[in-house]
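Input structure tokens:
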């Protein structure tokens, strides 16, 4: 049994990018952010990961203000530090600099009470790649439908 509760999932990620390596990272959050996160008020639509001084940060991840947070509420789109091992950060930094990859968040979830984020090393798809992926998906759906109706 997995103690993982998925809070937000980036559906557009697999459509817009070729996803390669995946990593799990912790997120450094402020007081009311975890409460809003537990309520599911997270959006990963435009989020991406950047590096500064050999540290990883998630930018443009939107966590809505906690309803009962009063003056102690957080900034909704502030830059949040990711908690990764140093060798993982160095590996990701090198890939981004040399090979034209980007790093995007795939999902945010709670595991054993801790907020985690799944990030992926990704390379952007061209328009024809997106069309081919859609054609393959449609063909697979048609085959499954035909097989279901056959029996």
């Amino acid at each position: 049994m997995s103690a993982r509760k998925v809070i937000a999932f980036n559906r557009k990620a697999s459509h817009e990018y070729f996803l390669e390596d995946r990593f799990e990272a912790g997120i450094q959050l402020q007081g009311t952010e975890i409460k809003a996160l537990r309520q599911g008020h997270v959006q990963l639509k435009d989020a991406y990961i950047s590096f500064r001084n050999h540290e990883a940060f998630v930018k443009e991840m939107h966590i809505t203000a906690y309803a009962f947070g009063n003056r102690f509420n957080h900034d909704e789109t502030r830059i949040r530090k990711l908690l990764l091992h140093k060798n993982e950060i160095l590996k990701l930094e090198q890939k981004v600099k040399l090979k034209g990859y980007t790093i995007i968040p795939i999902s945010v979830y709670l595991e054993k009470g801790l907020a985690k984020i799944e990030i992926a090393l990704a390379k952007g798809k061209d328009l024809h790649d997106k069309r081919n992926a859609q054609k393959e998906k449609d063909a697979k759906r048609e085959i499954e439908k035909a097989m279901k109706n056959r029996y």
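The beta strands are 4-9, 17-27, 42-43, 48-52, 55-59, 62-63, 80-83, 102-111, 114-124. The first helix runs from residue 13 to 16.
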